[in-house]
Design brief:
This protein has 180 residues and is α+β, with helices and mostly antiparallel strands. The chain has a domain of 92 residues: Multidrug efflux transporter AcrB pore domain (Alpha-Beta Plaits, 2-Layer Sandwich). It is built from six helices and four strands, in the order H-H-H-E-H-E-E-H-E-H. The chain has a four-stranded antiparallel sheet. Helix 4 crosses helix 5. The chain is elongated.
């Protein structure tokens, strides 16, 4: 009898309780109203098709990019020197303008780029003139070999969406000979 009781005790501890899943509230309704469910899905599909036809889609939507770039070249000079001589003075001068959201720069071998991003409703023509004035105020301090700073307006639609590069140089030579 003691042996039997031990086996039963083990069964009590080794049995895994059954997990009872409660059906969601919508499941019985869907099962009972199959036609209504089909009509809801068909109407959603129809609304999607109608919306697709009327929503304009373009590769480059016309959204104003309120940003300008001041680019200055000083050939033969390293990035550290470019940052010290050109980038920092331009940043300090331009940062006094109002309406700037972001101001960041890139100093590389022989070139300084200062990117200025304005509020969405900023008039870039006016901001461009203001930036030119600010840059002219500090550009007289630059070395003579420095190129005149250029203020550029970035337009994302002017960049190519993709570039195709041939894998083999032979294809390049064939194409070059055909067009020359």
């Amino acid at each position: 009898m003691a042996k039997n009781k031990k086996k039963n005790d083990l069964r009590e501890y080794t049995t895994v309780p059954e997990v009872v899943r409660k059906p969601s509230i919508s499941t019985p309704w869907v099962e009972n109203h199959k036609t209504g469910t089909a009509m809801i899905f068909l109407s959603l599909i129809l609304l999607g098709i109608i919306a697709f036809r009327f929503i304009p889609i373009s590769l480059f939507p016309e959204a104003p990019y309120p940003g300008l770039t001041v680019e200055t070249e000083y050939f033969g000079v390293g990035p550290e020197k470019i940052e010290e001589i050109i980038t920092k003075p331009i940043e300090e001068s331009v940062s006094t303008l109002g309406g700037i959201e972001h101001l960041f720069s890139v100093s590389e071998e022989g070139k300084s780029k200062v990117h200025i991003q304005f509020d969405q409703n900023a008039d870039l023509e006016i901001k461009s003139l203001e930036i030119r004035d600010k840059v002219e105020q500090v550009s007289y301090k630059f070395p003579r070999e420095t190129q005149k700073p250029i203020v550029l307006q970035y337009d994302p639609t002017q960049k190519p969406s993709f570039i195709i590069v041939p894998k083999k140089l032979r294809l390049l030579n064939i194409n070059r000979n055909n067009f020359v």
